[in-house]
Design goal:
By secondary structure, this protein is mainly beta. Helices cover 12% and strands 42% of the residues.
Length: 412
């Protein structure tokens, strides 16, 4: 009895090969023919189609999977900048993921001074572990987890608050979401003016920052010449550290770190006191507070108007600040009108046309009366006069006086 077994090799070729065998044969030989050119031509488009389909599927997978991964695993960084002196600032964090009701929210600062800023757990603020520096200055919404608004409000931001803040939401030691906020509190830059009638001026600096009692306070002048103006360290003033120019002329209030009033009062020496002053509070290399004050000299200019028939006139200047004993006072126009130097008048130094016609107070440096009396007034005397006060090393002050006849306006 014979049986026929037919094998169809459909994936190799479109041709079927049949092999006949007798029942009872121990083996059978199945012949295999290599595919022809026609077979390959038919097979190649199918392979290309499958490869292209695979590439498309991979691209779709990457396009959808990468954003999801980044959404779940990337920490968003926000930047906030405010000026010192504003009432409050908000560190924003509006979560877009569902938050479990039993999660814990922690705001902390990682630099420059690591601190525990605020903690929210079990639906309420939990401030047991809050750093003292932030005590009574932070606030979060009552239903923060429900509203997903995890923003932190910080009251009275100061320079020391500048740094990197991290908000972490976690449950059972598993982080749910995080946000990084970089806060920059800019230093206040004040501009002040002082004039010749002031005996002293105050560089203001009252801060809301809680300052450690072992911090150092330094007032420096950066321009026009760098100097150490005043230092408070180890709970007391350090006069040996200040520049000689300011020695004996500066004063801070008692316990400035405790009162948070770091203002500095300087007894005026002259318009050389004008410049940019910077107060820096620091400890262990960290800047805790800072203030910049630009102090400008307000130039003095006076107009004296007299009748042409007047024979005597006074060019006024009453100076209220203390003057050094070795100072010189010089009145001049295009030439030297009058010179007081080495404690007395120097008539030989004045121009010939003014000799015998000028007079000053006998002790002008002590009395502060630097006025000049000019006699036998002539038409050529009208014009602009300068009074300069100086020492061998310093230019202290000056004044401009415009002398003009009535009805004849002159321009400076």
């Amino acid at each position: 009895m014979e049986a026929f077994v037919v094998l169809i090799l459909g994936h190799v070729s479109q041709h079927a090969l049949g092999v006949a065998v007798n029942e009872g044969e121990e083996s059978v030989l199945l012949s295999c023919h290599a595919p022809t050119v026609n077979d390959l031509a038919t097979f190649t488009p199918l392979v290309l189609f499958l490869v292209a389909l695979l590439v498309v599927l991979l691209v779709l997978l990457l396009v959808t999977a990468i954003p999801v991964y980044l959404w779940d695993n990337t920490i968003t960084v926000s930047r906030v900048e405010v000026k010192e002196g504003v009432w409050l600032v908000k560190l924003p964090f509006k979560s877009k993921v569902q938050l479990p009701e039993d999660a814990t929210v922690e705001w902390s600062r990682c630099g420059p001074e690591p601190m525990k800023v605020h903690e929210y757990r079990k639906g309420a603020n939990y401030l047991v572990r809050q750093d003292q520096f932030y005590c009574d200055r932070t606030k979060m919404e009552k239903a923060a987890l429900t509203t997903r608004d995890l923003s932190l409000t910080l009251r009275d931001p100061c320079f020391r608050d500048s740094g990197t803040y991290i908000c972490t939401v976690h449950r059972d030691r598993e982080v749910v979401t995080q946000r990084v906020v970089r806060l920059r509190v800019t230093v206040v830059h004040e501009v002040m003016e002082f004039g010749e009638h002031a005996k002293s001026f105050t560089l203001p600096f009252q801060t809301t920052a809680r300052l450690p009692q072992d911090a150092t306070v330094e007032w420096r002048r950066s321009g026009p010449q760098s100097m150490m103006v005043h230092m408070f360290k180890d709970g007391q003033n350090q006069p040996d550290e200040q520049d000689r120019y300011y020695h004996g002329r500066t004063k801070m209030r008692d316990n400035p770190l405790q009162s948070r009033d770091l203002s500095l009062t300087i007894r005026i020496y002259g318009n050389k006191d004008s410049g940019t002053y910077t107060c820096t509070v620091h400890r262990d290399g960290d800047i805790l507070a800072q203030r910049v004050v630009e102090n400008r000299f307000k130039a003095s200019c006076v107009t004296v108007e007299v009748d042409k028939r007047v024979k005597t006139v006074k060019l006024p200047w009453k100076y209220t600040a203390d003057l050094p004993e070795d100072a010189s006072v010089e009145w001049c126009s295009l030439v030297i009108v009058h010179l007081y130097q080495n404690g007395k008048d120097q008539p030989e130094r004045q121009d010939q046309i003014f000799r015998g016609r000028t007079k000053m107070d006998k002790d002008p440096l002590r009395s502060g009366d630097l006025s000049l009396t000019l006699t036998n007034l002539t038409e050529g005397d009208f014009g602009i006069y300068f009074c300069n006060v100086f020492t061998d090393k310093d230019f202290i002050w000056n004044r401009i006086v415009l002398l003009q006849a009535k009805g004849h306006k002159m321009k400076m």
